[in-house]
Amino acid sequence: MKNVLVAVDSKSFGKTITQFIVNHFWPPDTQFKVLHVIEPSADSTAQQEAEELVNVVATAIRELLPSALVKTRIIPGNPEHEIIGTACSWPAEIVIVGSHGRRGVKKLVLGSVSSAVVTAAPCSVVVVKMPEFHADEKALVESEQNFVILSPK
Length: 153
Description:
The protein is an alpha/beta fold. It has a single domain (3-149), classed as Rossmann fold (3-Layer(aba) Sandwich). Helix content is 39%, strand content 25%. It has helices at residues 11-22, 44-64, 79-89, 104-110, 113-120; strands spanning 3-7, 31-38, 69-76, 94-99, 124-129, 140-142, 147-149. Strands 3-2-1-4-5 form a five-stranded parallel β-sheet, sandwiched between helices. The longest helix has 21 residues, at 44-64.
């Protein structure tokens, strides 16, 4: 069995990571845990948005990989600590995280959860970079029931 921790922090990351997952082979008994870390002081609106995010990603994985077991989890705290902690305690055999691809001063000032996870995780980590598209190109279109991924023009 393969335990795959899927850490998402936004709908656009969720879409990109879901596309990555469905484009790769996973053994039939693979278990996915979709994780979102919220601020400890998050209000009910943030909690509701977090639940919607993990449920949308989990539903997409279930629909596209029907043999996979998919669970969700929302944890308050520091994203890098909670992702690494969940990877250790579950235990995950692989962690999938997204990256904004920030560089230079922006990365220094804003930090990088994906870099911290790669450095400290007890298992392999896949970093899925967000696609860069020009303003006139549509990368991702969200339908009410699923994800539709469009390629750049």
